[in-house]
Amino acid sequence: MNGSKRSKQLMTELIVENCTKCALHRTRNRIVNGVGPIPCRILFLGEGPGSGEDKSGIPFYYKQWHSSAGKELNQLLQQNRMNRDMVYIDNVVKCRPPGNRDPLPEEMRACFEYLRNTVELVDPTVIVTIGKVSTSVFLGDVNMDIVHGVPHAGLFQGKFRTVLPVYHPAYGLKNASMINKVSSDFRTVGRVFRNQTKPVSFDSKQKKYEIVETCSDLLNAEGFVESSIIAIDTETVGDKDLHKPWCLTFSCADATGYMVKADNYKIIELVNMKVQDPNIKTIMHNALFDLAVLENMGIFPVNVWDTMIAAYLLQTEPQGLKGLAYRHLGLKMSEYSEVVTPYTVEKTLNYLLDYLNFDYPWSKPDPYEVIVKGERKMKKPRSLHSKTMQAVKKHTNDGVYDLFKWWSKNVDKEEKFEVEAVFGELVESDLSEVEFGAALNYACQDADATYQLYYILKERLEQ
Ligand code: SF4
Asked: In principle, which of 25, 120, 188, 381 could form an S-S bond with 365, CB 3.0–4.6 Å?
């Protein structure tokens, strides 16, 4: 059997007719089957048919004379030296969700068997997932702003394939600020198609994250003496608005990070001497925040470069450090809340249990008069002690009830006054309360990522 006959036969195998496996069959006009050569190196996967597709039965339906996602897709393909005949196009669900809503999980599950057959027979090496819904099939619940345009390598149906999430072409039609992101995503599709870009490999480098306590530690920190580039990040304690420093971290070489505590004045002075040299470039991510903290430590860099501003200028990048590190370095960095929240939870529980178990004549709220159906009645409000007991019980039973939020947002200041007079104010934990190794890793990774991102973003800006 020749190639084109075989392709036609496989195409016939993939055609779905008269399917009633999910509720979408009731509202559809036509089942929209995938189109394109089989096998095919590249599969474009949308979330579901729109109204034009529902009427025509063609995915990403295109009419010369009207503006549509299909027309936009064609143009983006052409701009990147591809066309529809070179690619296979399909959707996660083959029937139109009413009102163009996202397909429901049960509808996606019902249609998944067809998608599995498609991947097996079309056998793409690259699956371009268009939009969040189709991306979620392969990468789970991800933030499109972070993963878009990043080729991810993975094992799908027993084969290594690249999944490349892109923003939906229609986004560029509806939202002018998205045009650059959509175009940049499709440029990456073109590069992946021509084998010019490899999937991101998730960072597995051995990291060197250490604390600097003495001058000799500082002199031994990789790159500190000789490098003209130093990335600096800061961590604060207590109320963030006060910029009260806990430590700074710096990096002058890939995969390294060093922490200097804010009360280590000798080392702080030496770091200041370095960044006061106009030939030394100090890299920060969100310098506006860190400069205020550094000032409180007595550090005044004179030549500053901000990776957040660079990301902003590029227009296609997320501005958060963690998103940038994921996209360009394959680094999956922990969020501050992931590191600190468990400590806040434990501290809050202990605080409230201390209060409940403390033998003290806590004052009780006064009863007040209410009128019920024309009659005067005395109402006795619940005491803070009793409300706290209930909240603690709820937390102990389900393990997720947020006691800190309840105490800080739902309990009146006047009600807490007596308790705070005895136990002090309950404040959220910060890095200084976290197990030191975890705090060191968390703090150093920011300086390390900022150092590495500097070179990547600088090169992109220069291009
Ligand atoms: S969406 Fe898929 S599973 Fe549901 S009826 Fe259509 S073809 Fe069948």
From this structure: 381
Same domain? For 393 and 446 the reply is no
For 118, the domain range is: 3-193
- Is 22's C-beta closer than 6 angstroms to any atom of ligand 1? yes
What is the 162 CA–ligand 1 centroid distance (Å)?
26
Tokens 């991510």 -> residue: 285
Confirm or reject: Cβ of 107 under 6 Å from ligand 1. yes
Same domain as 293, residue 246: yes
Q: Which of 193, 227, 242 is the last residue of a domain?
A: 193
pLDDT-based confidence at 380, cuts 50/70/90? confident
User: Tens of pLDDT along 107-141?
Assistant: 999 999 999 999 999 999 999 999 999 999 988 88
d(CA 313, ligand 1 centre) in Å = 43
Range 152-157, long-range pairs (CB < 8 A, 24+ positions)? 152/199, 152/200, 153/199, 153/200, 153/201, 156/119, 156/127, 157/116, 157/119, 157/120
How many structural domains are present in the chain? 3
CA atoms within 13 A on the CB side of 92: 23
